[in-house]
Amino acid sequence: MRFDVVSLFPEMFSALTQWGITGRACEQGLASVNLWNPRDFCTDPRKTVDDRAYGGGPGMVMMAKPLEGTLAAIKAAHQSQSVVSGPICLLAPQGEVFSQKLAADILTRGNFTFICGRYEAVDQRFVERNVDLQLSIGDFVVSGGELPAMSMMDAVIRLIPGALGDGESAVQDSFVNGLLDHPHYTRPEIYENLSVPDVLLGGHHAKIADWRRQKSLELTLKLRPDLIQVARANGLLTREDEQFLRTL
Q1: Domains in the chain: ranges and CATH
Q2: Residue 35: beta bridge partners?
Q3: Which GO terms describe its cellular component (predicted)?
Q4: Which pTM does this prediction carry?
């Protein structure tokens, strides 16, 4: 999986490329993160990437030309390496909220370009001419698109076969089957007078699977009841699931 990331602060991405699961995936060649700074494609001595907004108002607006120059360099790099360019995504508050489903969809694209917005906004003409989709990580505003981009790439990289030590880890994550994940326990068996549920100690795999499914349903109904409705609408709930939900 290849990511091209346009950012005024490319150094921030060392947190993704040098640490943990994502760092190992990059080291193993399962994912590559290629960083591009728009300042490198400015033609003026001050390397200006932003200017005041027409019509007035607070904040600065990222200019279209440096960003388009950056995209041109990315496309040239793709062509020289026989890489098929994928979608171009702008990280912006008005974008579609990212989800596990979108993470799986991005993985199928093979190559993906993130534009990390900064300041007040990005010139709308750049958006209309170049951007295929806009994404956000929620209904709140952060200082730039770098942290959202890293969060999304982390979610995608986890899904790459071989990125996790155990392939079942990604399958059992929250949201993969439309529900929240079940509770987890480890040693010691008793901690501060709290015991691990007996069913997890018995070694009966079918009973453990049933317990985990029911706890997943129970937790989802308690914390994210909206997901129950979505799972039901998408046919992800079995007759046994519905019978259990009626007991809660």
Answers
A1: 2-157 (3.40.1280.10), 174-247 (1.10.1270.20)
A2: 5
A3: cytosol
A4: 0.89
